[in-house]
Structure to design on (270 residues):
């Protein structure tokens, strides 16, 4: 589970607003002794718990509104079912059961049981008592099925000319970009020499980019591996679509890829 607009997720802090208003409203009420108050004590005693429960539910709903609004604006993307199930679905289900428990007294036993089971399962899963059945299941999608933000790292070193390798790479990139779904954006980074993208910014004109990719020629004797990976990660990080991917086209010449471990370690430390 991730967010496309992480900064907007901080809006969850707005849940403090209804809490503060609730506290201030409670402090505004004053207790006034009244001689005939004892006549209403029995009625008040019966309804007090129900009124308190209703006030609690209203407070929870008011706190949930800014949380849900912040999650929507932050554009939450489900990449792993485990955290999504435990941190979003189960708590919301328990909250819904709590509300229905108060609103529909005839079925309070059913909703109380479902809410309790949700909370118990959530507690057991978070503490590791029950293994998550979704631990290794991720949401994936092929590039052609939904709009994507795609970065193609193309090795344009001279070694790619062997066996018409670079021509095949260009044809693949051209065909791939032309088949991307409408709404996709893409960029192609040349890895040879100093890593540089064909276009300065990702473009939604993927057919034009594909044509330019097919016209490329090998023009360098080495590959700028660290610079290429850095440029690719930066470009895909700035993508506007939920589906983001980096496609690497290379002959993986040994002299260029010997230090791949050190390069990846350097990127992880960023």
């Amino acid at each position: 589970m991730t967010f496309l607009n992480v900064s907007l997720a901080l809006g969850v802090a707005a849940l403090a607003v209804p809490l503060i208003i609730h506290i201030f409203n409670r402090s505004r009420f004053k207790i006034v002794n009244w001689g005939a108050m004892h006549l209403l004590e029995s009625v008040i005693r019966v309804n007090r718990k129900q009124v308190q429960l209703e006030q609690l539910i209203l407070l929870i709903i008011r706190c949930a509104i800014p949380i849900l609004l912040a999650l929507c604006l932050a554009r939450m993307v489900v990449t792993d079912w485990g955290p999504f199930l435990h941190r979003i679905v189960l708590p919301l289900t328990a909250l819904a059961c709590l509300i229905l428990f108060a609103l529909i007294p005839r079925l309070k036993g059913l909703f109380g049981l479902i809410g309790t089971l949700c909370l118990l399962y959530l507690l057991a899963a978070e503490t590791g008592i029950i293994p998550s059945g979704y631990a290794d299941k991720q949401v994936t999608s092929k590039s052609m099925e939904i709009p994507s933000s795609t970065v193609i790292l193309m090795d344009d070193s001279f070694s790619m000319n062997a066996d018409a390798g670079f021509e095949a790479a260009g044809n693949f990139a051209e065909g791939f970009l032309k088949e991307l779904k409408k709404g996709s954006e893409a960029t192609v980074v040349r890895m040879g020499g100093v890593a540089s993208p064909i276009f300065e910014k990702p473009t939604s004109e993927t057919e034009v980019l594909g044509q330019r990719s097919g016209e490329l020629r090998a023009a360098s004797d080495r590959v700028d591996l660290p610079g290429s990976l850095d440029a690719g990660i930066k470009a895909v990080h700035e993508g506007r679509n939920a589906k983001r991917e980096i496609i690497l086209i290379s002959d993986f010449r040994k002299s260029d890829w010997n230090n791949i471990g050190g390069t990846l370690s350097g990127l992880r430390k960023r």
About this structure: The chain has two domains: 2-127, 148-268.
